[in-house]
Amino acid sequence: MTSRQVLIDLYGTDEPVPQARLLMAGPLSAEFGGGGLRAIRIDGVETLRAISYVVRDRDWGTYSPELDDLRIAQEEGSFSVSYRATCRSETGTVLRYDATIRGTAEGHLRFDVTACPDGDFETNRCGFSVLHPIVDLAGRAVEVEHSDGAIERSMFPDLIDPYQPFKDIRAIAHEVAPGLKAVCRLDGDVFEMEDQRNWSDASYKTYVRPLALPWPYLLPAGEAFRQSVTLSLVGSGGAPRVASRAAPVEISIGGPIGLLPRFGLAVTPEDSADVAAQIEHLAEIAPQTLLYHLDPGAGHGREALAAYAQLAALWPAEAVLEYVASCGGDLDEEFAALARSVREAGLAYDAIVVSPAVDRQSTPPGSKWPDCPPLEAVYAAARRAFPSTRLGGGTLAYFTELNRKHPPVELLDFVSHCTCPIVHAADDLSVMQTLEALPFITRSARAIIGAGKPYRIGPSTIGMRHNPYGARTMPNPEQRRIPMALDDPRRRGRFAASWMVGYATCLADADVETFTGGALTGPLGLLDHGASTPAFRAACLLAALGGRPRLRCLSERSGEVACLAGRLRDGWAVALAANLTDRAQTVRVAGDVEWVAHGLNGGIVPSGKDGGVELEPYAVLRFDAPEGF
Q1: Which terminus has fewer CB within 10 Å in the chain: N or C?
Q2: Among 182, 201, 235, which residue terminates a domain?
Q3: 3-class state of residue 376 by DSSP
């Protein structure tokens, strides 16, 4: 198999995977790639997730800088990097910046950038972004130094903060080992922190220029500006070295514990005819729910409802109408007109999800909320028009929007929101790391909606179906890994299957009623020109387990191999294991019983001498239980 075909099988594109360069200086290590640093560790302990210099356009799209004159020097006890970067706007204006990075064996790291545009350069953000990891820091102590020298002693947020937990930041310090602190100092502008778990990023992000200031803004032509980030260690002793992780990864499967989420697919008016033409593929997945999107502001009307009625007659799943309410006039008239149109189209529906159109767009901190009737009035009008139908609300956008505008839960039968893993970054590692944030999202959502309220998630896909933060999703004709793209090429490869199973695994403890994990056709589709993808076959398994009894299933290294298990309708137990990494793993089911492994294509995967089964990069395996388990 050619290297190009390997890339396409894994990622759905032959775009090369960017290779990072490992830099080391004593206990300090970091990976350099694309002009930034990530996985910054002290004695193997992740201290910062990333430091990067970020330039965004007016739609919050991220520029991919062109790097020139790159020089990397690795010496005994130190390393250094220098380069020149260029960002070109759609108007032709160019921003250039010079960067230098240096690390020493004392655990000291400094990243400097001097930038200058050749003309007035429009941007929403230009400057450093520093990411702190979440898994070992959420809820732990942090010290924040402000610009006046005052020290604020607080905690990294545990539940997700809808706004900025810290503002006016000069330095951030946290403990990496007893008596040893890592201090991150930021100079050259005003910095603040946001809780990126809102967007399912696995980080707390400290960034330049407060959101309360106007954006977009102009960087004046010919005016140079400098920023720097410095990491240093304060205290005695060293961080405990992280033990190497030897194969195999052991999976433990136990007794029943609740139900697994039902599996759903989203349908748009643009794709409904294609879905009807692929009804055999739809029946092969057999989703429990079809989520029918209707947005009058996008021109959707009775023709769309009639197409939905035909499709609902072809596949008898739960039919949920997802309605973008204009809320521009009399609410009772709007919802009564919708109810008439639904009846006249002959659409048999089971539930309706309602959200005002203006709430699909983000309202950042410091911004004025757009005019909108109270949600209590919106849901009351929807209830009057659909008195015997389950009524859902929350947001048709992402958890961020739910977290910033809580719905009146008592008026709803269920609450819903989506997520998207490529809001800020679209490289493979960042996308997979968003799975770390999902348990925090579901726990924070539960804190908003309560323990007993039915809770739904999705559609949640790698591609971004809607951009709440700009005027559009990003076009992607070259099929690259770019943030905010509707059509992400990885949906065609094994990567998407692994990510989808990993996502379902992360929902297991949240009592999620329904997980809408994609669409059948279109740019978010599980089919590629009518052919099934690895994610399509993974969806078949998730749908077969949807709503079925869940079995306790634990992976000893859940960040590398995700797993879930349940009982099928015939009573047989099945477990799914997904390799979340780009390297092969060996997986073994604990205990004395022998589970039989199958690939997504159905073939048996033989086990080795120790009972371990090889799990190729981003592969998903199905384990069938021995008789009587």
Answers
A1: N
A2: 235
A3: helix
Amino acid found at 249: V
Q: How far is CA 134 from the centre of its chain?
A: 14
Q: Do 520 and 208 meet the contact criterion of CB atoms below 8 Å apart?
A: no
Whether the pTM exceeds 0.70: the reply is: yes
The answer to whether residues 186 and 170 touch, using CB atoms and an 8 Å cutoff, is: yes
Asked if residue 576 is part of any domain, the answer here is yes
Is-contact 162 238, C-beta < 8 A? no
Question: What is the tens place of the pLDDT at every residue in 382-434?
Answer: 999 999 999 999 999 999 999 999 999 999 999 999 999 999 999 999 999 99
Pairing of β 414-418 and β 390-398: parallel
- Distance of alpha carbon 589 from alpha carbon 566, whole angstroms: 15
Q: What range defines the domain where residue 173 resides?
A: 22-235
Tell me the one-letter amino acid at 588.
R
Residue with tokens 């941007």: 123
d(CA 199, CA 438): 10
| Rg of the chain, C-alpha, whole Å | 25
Please check whether residues 562 and 538 belong to one and the same domain.
no
| pLDDT (tens digit per residue) in 534-549 | 999 999 999 999 999 9
Bridge partners for 252 per DSSP:
554
378 shares a domain with 285: yes
In a domain, 104, yes or no: yes
Tokens of 41: 């560790």
- Of 42, 27, 17, 50, the C-alpha closest to 207 is 50
